[in-house]
Amino acid sequence: MLTxxxxxxxxLEDRELFNYVKSPKEPGWLLTSGFWSPFYVNLRKLGxxxxxxxxxxxxxxxxxxxxxxxxxxxxxxxGLSLASVAGIITxxxxxxxxxxxxxxxxxxVLELADYDIVLVDDVYSMGTxxxxxxxxxxxFKNNIRELLVVVDRSKTRSTKYDPVNSLINFDDxxxxxxxxxxxxxxxxxxxxxxxxxxxxxxxxxxxxxx
Length: 210
Prior knowledge:
Elements (H helix, E strand, L loop, with lengths): L4 H10 L3 E3 L8 E2 L5 E2 L1 E3 L10 H12 L6 E5 L3 H13 L3 E3 L19 E9 L3 H7 L9 E9 L11 E6 H12 L5 H9 L7 H5 L3
Parallel strand pairs: 5-6, 5-7, 7-8, 8-9
Antiparallel strand pairs: 1-4, 2-3
């Protein structure tokens, strides 16, 4: 499994899949949750970057081996390719989950009662997508063992299900950024953000600590 997390984050940055603000001239990012963030993770194009994509999928598949009979269940949309490729590499069965019921076809319900289900997605933030899934009347809901993501950017849990397992977590990201800027003039901003990342709705609120 991937062991040097800081090198992994650096590779994501090199491939422009991860970025963070470096000066007040940079506006940062407004997340779908409504919160502003000084860093951003965009893994929608991860599949274009081999062998990095392969290595991450391998790690996901190996982590699922904690369970006796794992099935990788991809969450749309990025989680579908992650679960599929991880399953191919490690030999675990995999399939995808539909977030909304369809109004056509046979409306077949997946029979997954015999599996230890591992939900797979790219980034966990506020738990909105996961909550949508858990609010559905899924016959295999009791078989869900964990959510496995590449990046868990949350400081606290807001989902109806734990655990959330990740290759990279919030503290890993802050540690990486801290190593990059600890001798710069903006370290106080990052210290404030690390203590409570859910207080910022505007970039100016972040930079005003300097």
